[in-house]
């Protein structure tokens, strides 16, 4: 389960930010997770709850923003929506589609007090 290592990485970013800002507690963490990122939001939520125990982020709410997949179709020469990696173009059926969005995972916001 790679979500555990991802949750640990998020916690490290959160703790670094809290320390830098002199925060006593983290109230909210907002993550953007792309549909093509191979990250399971439910598993990440579970792992986040586990790794934040006894930390400045214990009890913090985790909000996940879904980022849709997008790709560049070489046949259509257009940006098209993608539901899966290595899928076909929904317009022409070509499999020459390079992902351009929805593969990322990033911390968008941290609310502290």
As laid out across the biggest beta sheet, the strand order is 2-1-6
First-residue to last-residue Cα separation: 32 Å
Q: In percent, how much strand structure appears in the residues?
A: 25-35%
Mean pLDDT: 96
> How would you characterize the largest beta sheet?
3 strands, mixed
Shape: elongated
Helix proportion: 25-40%
Beta strand count: 6
Low-confidence stretches: none
Q: How large, in whole angstroms, is the Cα Rg?
A: 17 Å
The fold-level CATH name is: hypothetical protein PF0899 fold
Number of helices: 2
Computed structural class: alpha+beta
CATH architecture annotation? 2-Layer Sandwich
Task: Count the domains.
Answer: 1
Written as H for each helix and E for each strand, in order along the chain, the element string is HEHEEEEE
Concise structural overview:
This protein is 27% helix and 35% strand. It is α+β, with helices and mostly antiparallel strands and 113 residues long. It has a single domain, classed as hypothetical protein PF0899 fold, CATH 3.30.2320.
Q: What is the element layout, followed by pairings?
A:
Layout: H1 3-21, E1 26-34, H2 41-51, E2 61-67, E3 69-73, E4 78-82, E5 97-101, E6 105-112
Parallel strand pairs: 1-2
Antiparallel strand pairs: 1-6, 3-4, 3-5
Helix pairs in contact: 1-2
């Amino acid at each position: 389960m790679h979500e555990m290592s991802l949750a640990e990485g998020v916690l490290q970013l959160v703790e670094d930010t809290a320390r830098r800002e002199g925060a006593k507690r983290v109230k909210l963490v907002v993550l953007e997770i792309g549909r093509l990122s191979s990250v399971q939001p439910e598993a990440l939520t579970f792992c986040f709850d586990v790794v934040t125990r006894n930390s400045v982020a214990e009890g913090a709410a985790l909000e996940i923003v879904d980022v849709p997949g997008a790709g560049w179709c070489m046949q259509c020469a257009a940006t098209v929506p993608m539901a899966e990696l290595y899928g076909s173009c929904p317009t022409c059926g070509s499999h020459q589609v390079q992902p351009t969005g929805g593969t990322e995972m990033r911390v968008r916001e941290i609310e502290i007090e």
